[in-house]
């Protein structure tokens, strides 16, 4: 019977996790993060509500695995290339004088957060709410990457200077508090005094990193990564379990091993398809079980029996606000009050590490069940309030003046015509060539601003800021040199790299590094085949009066409208809709969504009219 009750409870939790996002979509509650909604549903079906879920081995194991996988994906989410100092443009009306260095500003803000959190923690200790100031400091200073990242993406701020700064603050907070939580366990846990053993865990991480770096591009690994073997996915799960086991062995929390595994995989630049599979498995199965169970285990009604806990909840919420908003005032040197206030508020959101710290504190006897529930409840409240206030402050962050910055390395008959035809309002181009290249001086002087180089030495080009751009096009006359430049650009964190190579082996190597390959031979062959099989498509791509255009859907007036009901009439045909990573073939029942990228064709006059209509932002 006990086994049957355990399975029944698991089914209830799975169904709850399944219907939660459906309900959010149905009632248009997109402003609430899914993880918070899952906790709320857990409250309804758990001890605080109908109490229809019983604890059992199934739920305990899957919930623990969900937490471990959440920490792994949090580590995987970190893009270490953002630690490179790169010049990005921020929205002029939000930015003051000069563009701050995101790494320097983020580090300074986090130091301020930690110092204020430590001071506030001693106040809580003096007030008798908790005995350990170290644990309280970690609870107050932590920031939820899982809430910050999707909020910034939704506001279209990931590519702005302030967006990078907010993200870096969250990343640093996640890394530091995660490591300090492991140190806390080693000091105050039952097997205290083994802090130095953490070095073994990090040494193992370094070893696994170099092993992965050596074997990731081996031909036999790429062969076994397909079909029923999926060796890359097996390697990831093996790494997670090895580091989790090692973490527990040295006396640290298992989540530190999982987080370390995620950072290692991120450093190895994993295949995007594999990352998508891991996300699907984690957020589609294990992680929802964990968050629903967080809600199930909270007994809200018991919190009202302790007046001390009732006083703690608002005080802790205020402490979280003060610890984030006050250090964020540093940003007022470069940004206006709206930006500073919004940034401080979104940094207040905290969840996963508070849950971990509360669980550890309860296990070590530092807090009781009521205090644990209060801490988790405050964390949930921050995740509800912070994104809502942030969106209210910012609306939708649109950087109208932002241009995609492109460096063309190699100025020749392949690149110059392309530069001439790029939209100057959307692209900022920089052309580079060596003094020995033969380029018509009249073209160079009259039409293009071409910067001369002594040679294509990547280190010297780095000093000149060639790689501080959004896109690199490597198209010199030497494909080996192009490949070298492309590899270096990727190492420098350039988001998109296009390289001109002809040989199949070099082309495959570039594709494995997620570098776009341009080949004169393959392009000519594809164009000739298209002219034979689909001449009308070629006409659309090559004729200016019937070209393809991209329009970004920013006008909320048309959000959710079906194409058949779309009031705009004109000589325009919608060819494709890109929504996130999805590519949608439009038809009458297709709904337009905010953030959609529409690929259309038609006369330039009507396209511009449609563009003005859809790209108009009501918050601008």
TrEMBL record:
Keywords assigned: Antiport, Ion transport, Membrane, Transmembrane, Transmembrane helix, Transport
Q: Where are the transmembrane segments?
A: 6-24, 31-50, 62-82, 103-127, 133-153, 165-189, 195-212, 233-261, 281-304, 311-335, 341-361, 373-390
A molecular function annotated in GO for this UniProt entry is:
monoatomic cation transmembrane transporter activity
- Membrane topology, from the record: Multi-pass membrane protein
RCK C-terminal domain: which residues?
A: 535-616
A Pfam family annotated for this chain is TrkA_C
Q: Where in the cell is it found?
A: Membrane
* GO BP: any one term: proton transmembrane transport
Q: What is its main location?
A: membrane
What InterPro entries does the annotation carry? Cation/H_exchanger_TM, Na+/solute_symporter_sf, NAD(P)-bd_dom_sf, RCK_C, RCK_C_sf, RCK_N
Q: Which GO terms describe its cellular component?
A: membrane
Which PANTHER family does this entry report, sorted A to Z? NA(+)_H(+) ANTIPORTER YJBQ-RELATED (PTHR43562:SF1), NAPA-TYPE SODIUM/HYDROGEN ANTIPORTER (PTHR43562)
Q: Which family does it belong to?
A: Belongs to the monovalent cation:proton antiporter 2 (CPA2) transporter (TC 2.A.37) family.
Name of the molecule in the record: Sodium:proton antiporter
Annotated organism of origin: Halobacillus trueperi
